[in-house]
Specification:
Blueprint lengths: L3 H15 L14 E6 L6 H9 L4 E3 L5 H5 L1 H12 L13 H20 L7 E5 L7 H7 L4 E6 L2 H13 L10 H21 L3 E5 H7 L1 H11 L5 H10 L2 H6 L25 H4 L2 H10 L1 H6 L10 H27 L14 H6 L1
Parallel strand pairs: 1-3, 1-4, 2-3, 4-5
Helix pairs in contact: 7-8, 8-14, 10-11
Length: 354
């Protein structure tokens, strides 16, 4: 009898943990609103997050990469093992998909609760990892009522900022190539279209509008979050978090120690500095590779086409295809582990034109 007790208790605990929670349908966290700020990297998402986090009703923390890093292997392995019809290996013989997701939900909710603990009276839990724009399916699977706030910035400014990040503090993840940076921006924009088609809890904000209208735009965003902040307070928050202030004297209301961020993390923040950072041919390259989504979001091309500029586009694409092919061969050359999942580099044209 006593020998069976531990196993029975363990089974009961597992069943309790895996039991679908009512919180899964009401956004967990005691009814707090869970919001994910997403977008292309270097779009100003940190700036927006800091301003929203200045409210006592918004709890937030620095980027968690919860879904893109910590939970990504769980989702990936579940799908990979499910596709294996030869042998019943992995967790599928033990857990149903609903139970598997409930276990993930428990861990993810625990992370969000830690963020909420910073401001227990907050009504909004705000997470900001730009790359989560591509993990919206998994986020909605775990948190069906999650809200998404996508910050959209001119692709010419984003491509320039990504290149600048590579030259300094972002050399391990950013790219010096405008073609790569255009693909990053385009994928984020395409993911945003998909989010909008799958949930009503989605809103976009243009960086340029936020930069121009300041406190007025900020108050509109707070209202969407369900947080009542006066126009005067929004104006003060916007003034406290201007880019030059963030570079010199971080506000005391910041949600984390932003003085510890890398040098040049906060750049000029201007809306048109890309005019000085890009040549006319480079501007044409970015405009051509992002044209569909660029025009969809209200950004107008400035550089006209010429035979020489079209040749530059084809040269850039050809070099990118050659580079992608070499990377593909290197992946296969290093695929010595039988469990290593090899993924073909994404087709560039599809990533750009979507």
């Amino acid at each position: 009898m006593s020998a069976k007790a531990p196993a029975e208790n363990g089974t009961a605990r597992l069943a309790s943990t895996c039991r679908p929670s009512a919180a899964a349908s009401d956004n967990t966290l005691g009814g707090k609103r869970l919001v994910f700020i997403v977008g292309a990297p270097r779009s100003g998402t940190t700036w927006l997050q800091l301003m929203l986090g200045a409210s006592s009703k918004v709890a937030t923390a620095n980027e968690t990469h919860l879904f893109s890093s910590y939970l990504s292997s769980l989702f990936h392995q579940w799908e990979a093992r499910k596709a294996n019809k030869r042998r019943a290996l992995g967790l599928h013989p033990i857990l149903s998909e609903e139970e598997f997701h409930a276990l993930i939900r428990g861990f993810a909710s625990g992370v969000m609760e830690r963020i909420l603990a910073r401001k227990p009276d907050a009504t909004v839990v705000l997470e900001k990892s730009p790359i989560h724009v591509r993990w919206w399916r998994e986020i909605l699977t775990i948190f069906p009522d999650a809200h998404f706030l996508q910050l959209i910035r001119d692709p010419r400014a984003v491509a320039t900022s990504l290149r600048a990040a590579y030259a300094g503090w972002g050399s391990t993840w950013a790219s010096p190539r405008l073609v790569d940076n255009c693909a990053v921006w385009s994928r984020a924009m395409s993911a945003g279209v998909e989010i909008a088609a799958n949930t009503r809890n989605y809103r976009t904000v243009r960086y340029e509008d936020l930069h121009e209208h300041g406190g007025e735009s900020l108050q509109t965003i707070f209202a969407w979050l369900g947080v009542d902040v006066s126009a005067g307070e929004c104006g003060r928050i916007f003034d406290d978090y201007r880019m030059q202030t963030l570079r010199s004297k971080p506000p005391p209301t910041a949600s984390w120690n932003i003085a510890a961020e890398p040098a040049e993390f906060f750049r000029r923040g201007a809306t048109n500095s890309w005019h000085q950072d890009l040549t006319r041919n480079e501007i044409y390259l970015v405009e051509t590779l992002t044209r569909e989504m660029m025009e969809r979001h209200g950004y107008r091309p400035e550089v006209s086409s010429t035979p020489w500029r079209r040749a530059i586009i084809w040269r850039a694409l050809l070099l990118q295809y050659i580079r992608a092919g070499l990377e593909w061969r290197m992946i296969f050359a290093n695929a010595c582990d039988g469990d290593l999942t090899v993924t073909r580099p994404p087709r560039l044209r599809a990533g750009i034109s979507r």
